[in-house]
UniProtKB/TrEMBL annotation:
It is a multi-pass membrane protein. This is Probable membrane transporter protein. Belongs to the 4-toluene sulfonate uptake permease (TSUP) (TC 2.A.102) family. InterPro entries: TM_pro_TauE-like, TSUP/Inactive_protease-like. Pfam families: TauE (PF01925). It is found in: Cell membrane; Membrane. Keywords: Cell membrane, Membrane, Transmembrane, Transmembrane helix. GO terms for cellular component: plasma membrane. The keyword Acyltransferase does not apply.
Length: 226
């Protein structure tokens, strides 16, 4: 959780346009999320029923977010950058809040998991990240086992990311190869380590670590924009 969000706010702080940021991240994330999803599946961290519920809505949301950003991201780059920085700041605060919320003792049925996946896919494509923090944190606070939530959401993320990357590629082509390559190498190298640690580290402190990182980078990006 946090690959896209942390990468997005980091690249935005370097001055890249929102479209270039999201397109680069999702191109690289096809490989990183593929490695992550495979390792989670290998370690038995995937709930097949939850996978089926999240898959198609996540893909639909991802494609619609990519289309919207591709058509309006360059024209309104200044506004979109500010909007995304605020969005990521709110997302970081939400992750911190989720870290200190009590997890339901009894597992609640997530009635709107499809809508959750659709919103997560849309915001992930449009904002460069958000799939993991939004979907993962919501499912965990509803009482689902962190190990299976993280594993299942990571596997679905491969398909969501592939749909987004394919949409960007069809419309814009591929640019910023150096950034894409760096993101691929780092993501693939970290994937098996993260999959093995999932469920072994305290969930609260995993959330706090990701949330603080996102908040700091968001404030840094806003400072540069203002």
């Amino acid at each position: 959780m946090g690959y896209g969000v942390v990468s997005a706010i980091s690249l935005m702080s370097l001055g890249l346009s929102p479209v270039s940021v999201s397109a680069s991240i999702h191109t690289a994330e096809v490989f990183a999320s593929g490695a992550s999803g495979y390792n989670h599946y290998r370690f038995g961290n995937v709930n097949k029923r939850l996978f089926r519920v999240l898959l198609l809505p996540g893909i639909a949301g991802s494609v619609s977010g990519a289309l919207l950003l591709a058509h309006f991201g360059e024209t309104y780059a200044g506004y979109v950058k500010a909007l995304l920085a605020v969005y990521l700041l709110i997302l970081g605060l939400r992750i911190i809040t989720k870290a200190f919320q009590k997890v339901a003792r009894k597992r609640k049925k997530v009635k709107n998991a499809g809508w959750l996946a659709g919103a997560g896919g849309f915001l992930d494509s449009f904002g460069g990240g958000g799939w993991g923090p939004l979907v993962t944190s919501t499912l965990i606070t509803n009482g689902r086992t962190p190990r299976y939530v993280i594993g299942t959401v990571s596997l679905v993320e491969f398909f969501v990311t592939f749909a987004s990357a394919f949409t960007f590629f069809t419309i814009l082509g591929i640019s910023h190869w150096q950034i894409v390559l760096g993101l691929i190498v780092g993501g693939v190298a970290a994937a098996p380590i993260a999959a093995k640690l999932a469920g072994r580290l305290p969930t609260r402190w995993m959330f706090v670590g990701v949330g603080l990182m996102v908040i700091v980078w968001s404030l840094w990006a806003l400072r540069k924009l203002l």
